[in-house]
Structures are given as structure tokens and as C-alpha cells.
Amino acid sequence: MKTILSLFILTTFSLNLFSQDEKAKKILDEISIKTKAYETMYFEFTVVVAVPGEEPITQSGKVYIKDEKYFLSLTEQEVYCDATTITTFLKEDNECYTRSVEDVEDGEIVSPSQLLTVWEDGYKYKYVQETTYADRPAHEIHLYPKDPSNSKFHTIILKIDAEKNEVVFFMVKGKDGTNTKYKISKFDKNIDISDSKFVFDRAKHPGVVCQEE
User: Fold this and answer.
1) Which helix (H) or strand (E) holds 7?
2) Apex 157 CA angle, 151 and 158, nearest 5
3) Structural domains of the chain, count
4) Distance CA 35, CA 116 (A)
């Protein structure tokens, strides 16, 4: 009798997990389709990095995206990508570093747009709960690396606006205890963005020192 009961509990739990994963998959697939349909994207966000034993570091940022091109602006640095070259400009040091997009290593994030569809490659996912975020209904979904031995983190927590079907929050939980939170405060799409936005203009930064990585 105990064996039968145990099997019943195990089967019910397994079916529930399958159901939750299917729910997560449906939501994430819909977001992927929507995101890839946008010609351009712009979003503003806050990132908080919490390292064990240290004061959290908070920065605000904004991102412009057009096809494979993007411009990322943070408090201390800017990153320009014209789909061929990635240039990182360090504001305080007045230095920049360039590298080819082709030199980006496998598994490395190439564009900020990938953060909005990070689940598409190399992750398992699970629907956790219906919740709220910024006083709006939201879905909470957790992502787990399929190959945890080659990952520096163990979980990504997503919160998705249930009405807009857009990612509004995600937290990366590192194996070393470091947690990085991204809070998206504004998201616009299909706006006009000039290609010049994605090119670092050295003339606007007199004395800048640039190096190739």
C-alpha cells in the first residue's frame, strides 16, 4: 500500500512538473516570436550587482537595438556594436577597446536583445507562480543551465508582465553568491533609430585612447 501511494505521489509530481514546463514554454515562445518581429527596440533599466560581503553596486542604463546592431549606455561605460565591431568606451578613463563580433566566444552574450530571449539555447525552464511586479500581474519563471558544470550561475529568475507578455525583471544567481538584478522600467519598439547611433565617434571624445583586444 505504501509503495502504491509513493508511486501515486511521484507520478502526480512528475505530471505537475511537465504541466508547469509546458506553461513556461508557451509563454516564452510567445515572447520570442514577438521580440524577433520588432524592427527596433529601446529599453531603460536598472542593474544591481550584489557581491557577498560588499555593498551592492547600482547602475542605470539604456539600450538601442536595430537588427544585429546595438548601443548600450551605462553609468560608467558605453558599448557600441555596428554588427561587425564591438567598441567599449570607459568614460572616466577616456579609453576604448575594440574587437570583432566574430571573436566573441561561444556562450557569450553578443547583443542585449539576447537577454530578452536568453532561454532559447541551453536552458531548462519551469513555471513557478503567478505573482505581481510593479503592481501588475506577472508570471515568474525560473531558468536552469542544461550544463551547470560549464556555467557560472545556477538560476535565472524571470518576471514577465502577464498582460504585455514582456520581460520586466530578471535576476542571475551566481554560484559564488553574486546576484545580479535587472529591472526594466521602459520598453519601446519599432522606433526610428539612426545607424550612426551604433558607431563610436572618436571625434566626440578628444584624447581618447583606443586599443584592439
Assistant:
1) helix 2-37
2) 125
3) 1
4) 8
